[in-house]
Amino acid sequence: MNRRFTTISACVLAVLLCLSGGCPAKYHKLEKPKLNLVGFKLVDARLLEQRFELTFRLINPNDVALPVTGIYYEVELEGEPFATGVNASPVDIPAYGETRVTVQMSTTLLQSIRSLAAIAETEPESLNFHLKGHLKVDLPLLGKIPFSETGQIRPAR
Q1: Which of 11, 51, 56, 92 could serve as 44's disulfide partner, Cβ 3.0–4.6 Å?
Q2: What is the DSSP letter of 28?
Q3: What band does 13 get if pLDDT is binned at 50, 70 and 90?
Q4: Neighbours of 13 (CB within 10 A)
Q5: CB 82 within 8 Å of CB 117
Q6: Can you give the pTM of this predicted structure?
Q7: Residues facing residue 144 across a β-bridge
């Protein structure tokens, strides 16, 4: 009888906590963080692989910090798949704040040859890019938050 009373008391306490705002349901109301590409540079170029460094600005429009535990991203240049990357280094985006994250990505010669050939031929002032992927956030019920950004970058001369 004592165990049954304890179980019922625990259930009642859980319901009261959820009704009083102590429930993770508040995370359903969160706005998606914004991700902007603010830096893009070639770090290492070898015959079969090129390494690039990307710098993202992560902006949190919420009143709770967002603990990001992973980032997956893909980049297209001039409409062609260019490179992909991942980052598992944890970063916290403060409430109503922003932080910068620098990550690496790689591409193989076969992946990038079409894009690089088109860029070399035309020598454009700027390149159209599409960045997409997801942030893995360590909060109840959030999981992966997708992002997508398009814009232009200036190639290094």
Answers
A1: 51
A2: G
A3: very low
A4: 10
A5: no
A6: 0.71
A7: 136
Burial class (CB in 10 A: 0-12, 13-18, 19+), 35: buried
Please provide the DSSP assignment of 78-144 as one string: TTEEEEEEEE---EEE-TT-EEEEEEEEEEEHHHHHHHHHHHHHH--SSEEEEEEEEEEE-STTTEE
| Residue whose entry in the numeric block shows the structure tokens 């969160």 | 30
Tell me which of 3.40.50.150, 2.60.40.10, 3.30.70.1230, 2.40.70.10 is the CATH number of domain 24-153.
Answer: 2.60.40.10
pLDDT tens digits for range 44-56: 888 888 888 989 8
Q: What angle do CA 132, 138, 139 make, to 5 degrees?
A: 110
